[in-house]
Amino acid sequence: MVDEHGIVPIGSSEGSGSFFRSPLPDRKQGEDNAYANALAQFEKAVSHLNLKRGVVETLRHPKRELSVTFPVLMDNQEVRVFRGYRVHHSAVKGPTKGGIRYSKEVTLDEVRALAMLMTWKCALMNIPYGGAKGGVVVDPKELSTRELERLTRRYATEISVLMGPESDIPAPDMGTNPQVMAWIMDTYSMHRGFSVPAVVTGKPVEIGGSLGRTEATGRGVAETMREALRIRGIDPEKATVAVQGFGNVGSVAARIAYEMGAKVVAITCSKGGIFNGNGLDPQAVIRHVEEGGCVYNFPNADGISNEELLTLDCDVLIVAALENQITSRNADKIRAKIIAEGANGPTTPEADEILNAKGIFIIPDILCNSGGVTVSYLEWVQDLQSFFWPVEEINLKLQALLMKAFESVMECARIYNVPNREAAQILAIQRIADAMMIRGIYP
Predict the structure, then answer these.
(1) Cα dist from 51 to 14, 119, 285, 368, 432, whole Å
(2) Domain span at residue 293?
(3) Residues of the chain with confidence (pLDDT) below 70
(4) Do residues 227 and 184 share a domain?
(5) What is the C-alpha to C-alpha distance for residues 5 and 295, in angstroms, rounded to an integer?
(6) Is 28 labeled as catalytic in the residue annotation?
(7) Is residue 72 a contact partner of residue 79, using CB atoms and an 8 Å limit?
(8) pLDDT at res. 25
(9) pLDDT score of 29
(10) Among 51, 266, 322, 358, which residue has the fewest nearby CB atoms (within 10 Å)?
(11) CB of 438 within 8 A of CB of 93?
(12) In terms of pTM, does the model score above 0.70?
């Protein structure tokens, strides 16, 4: 029987077909391959479920992948060629949803992995989306604003065969922002001949964006951190917090943690970081950066590297940078009591084994950083009905959905006696599999 949390216990007759325990994939690619890591996590979770072999095989692979190569006219009149991707992992629960990142490090395997994680994230939050992801191999800091706009509009045109408010809805990710989403929305709208604000989320409020969207991911990290502290019996006002990554997610999470009364003792960015055992004011650090400074030269603080921050003795470690930050090479040195995964895929499967053995409470990425896609869903709903809610209502809706998902993950972990990440993915995979079988296999 399916319980109130949507969990099918092992051995239940609710599962369809014979029990299928799939072997772990070949790990010869190493811990740094994001897709191999996502598959390893999937195999571990699905081994607890009684699913048809074909359902498992379907969920193991992306539904569709688009790879594009396109020219962009630069300011010096030269033409540069760029590579971009858009991957849909699953569309079973609804239109696909996922960010677009601009980075020199973008690979097809990375985009595949992030699309898969988006499927689980949306299913875990019980919002009617499938998972997608996109990216362009480019360092946006090397382009002028006009060059960035031309690149964005051409990439949007290339992937417009997939995009649409009922089919595929992009959002910001690393290296992109509300302005990039505005260009994508305008490009799509120009091709349609009328404005289609619901085609993207995370766009400026002036053109249909939602209040609270910009800080939603960081707010979700802080809210789930507070719940984890409660479970571990730690007073938030006595908690110490270290934050790796001070972009939109890390800076917001740090600021809200500070407002909760926690002591933020360390912050790092890609170039270095700062430490102060007496605590840092994240808002002051944000102002310092906005005024042209860098995190690492913030006054009245000692320097610290990203590697040193990860191994600090603290109550909460917020990892809000890139994937594969905690690996088998450093997991045994982690001393935090709680790890809040603000980034996607920051912990490798090998590291998970070590951290779980140490009893560290992990708030898995598909739960911890799901605030962004949740408020993106609320933005999409508002755009479709042309009716907008105040930020207070947005934040209340976000908190309610987050806490319901958190409670379901804890219950699933108890039923299956598994770590939090496995529990979150078990819950999400079961929901997708159920939706597949209820819809039926076409034709």
Answers:
(1) 10, 17, 49, 27, 11
(2) 216-368
(3) 1-30
(4) no
(5) 42
(6) no
(7) yes
(8) 40
(9) 56
(10) 358
(11) no
(12) yes
